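User: My collaborator sent over this chain with a note saying "see what the structure looks like." That's all I know about it. Can you take a look?
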Amino acid sequence: MNTVNFTRLPLDDGDVVLDLGCGEGRHVISTYVQAQVHAIGVDLSLEDLQTTRERFEDFAEPESSERSFGLSSASALQLPFADDTFDKVICSEVLEHIPDYRGALREIERVLKPGGLFCASVPRTWPEKICWVLSEGYYTVPGGHLRIFRSNELRRDIEVLGFKFYHRHWAHALHAPFWWLKCLFWRSQDSNWLVRQYHRLLVWDLMESPVLTRILEKSMNPIMGKSVVMYFRKEATS
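Assistant: Without extra context I'll predict from the sequence alone. Here is the result:
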């Protein structure tokens, strides 16, 4: 389930791409599959990185000078890479978890090459507010969301570092009600019938990708997409 639209973040053969906060690997693996690139995923969780490694095995090809895959456990505030290392950086559904998110943005600016592209996604404001109202546990659980972003404010935080905004869209409208249900039944979410049935629907949609739900979600994303996704280019003079 990609949040990033790779037509808006085009990958060129030979690109070095960072997925910061890669979690269980959905974007770093997709990046590797999309083009002949050097895909690197970074996360603090060793457990998530192990899951990513296991999932990657189904897609792995012999490494070459044009393609490779790597994972690293590191802090977003102190990335183990030299300045101007990456052609593209993805940071999807991560910044809301980081206390010093501006420090993470400065690190992204440091390791991204001038002219490079950066995609950031965070939970959209109003669907996120409903989650916070429905469940205190949603945002107090260890590793949970620390803030609710306003997209225009986050955009300014990124632009002030020398990035030029060029596109925005919304994603995962069908997932917003799922999270509202999880929050409403927070204590019993694992066993709740409604939550389990909605989860079955999402898995079916992901695996089968039927035309009806694709059209439905695309039409609903501008209204209730759970994630806001923004794309930037690092100015050569930043």
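A starting point for your reply to your collaborator: The beta strands are 16-20, 38-43, 68-73, 86-92, 112-123, 163-171, 227-234.
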